[in-house]
């Protein structure tokens, strides 16, 4: 009887195969997961604001002094929403998850000037709320580099109200 047909060889081969398969399973199951994958799988570590049950929103502030047409405003708000989403995905994925859980609410408000926009960005930074200012390429209605829209959030409504509560809806 040769070594290949012996019972001891089959036992060692079987144990080795099972050990290899089990090792691969545990390595793949418990490997390091980047933040984006943690967000996708719905795992949470902790909340970044005091009340996780507070409604989360994204505020879009449109400069009213530029007198942009409706289509232009829509495009600029779209750019701001995507920029806010990308920034939140990179910097605060748990906040993004809560915002999406609450329906991804977006509220558009009027801003009277560029100075007011910059002041809102300063207040947002002071309260550790994400903000993104959109600059236009200048190919249609406004000059190149003009700041058109600011996205503030996503963040809890109670925090956003302290920054943008005085602004009127667009």
TrEMBL record:
The keyword Zinc-finger does not apply. It is an enzyme of class 3 (hydrolase). Keywords: Hydrolase, Membrane, Transmembrane, Transmembrane helix. One of its GO terms (molecular function) is peptidyl-tRNA hydrolase activity. InterPro entries: Pep_tRNA_hydro_II_dom_sf, PTH2. The chain crosses the membrane at residues 6-28. It catalyses: an N-acyl-L-alpha-aminoacyl-tRNA + H2O = an N-acyl-L-amino acid + a tRNA + H(+). GO terms for cellular component: cytosol. Belongs to the PTH2 family. This is peptidyl-tRNA hydrolase. It comes from Aromia moschata. The lineage of its organism: Eukaryota, Metazoa, Ecdysozoa, Arthropoda, Hexapoda.
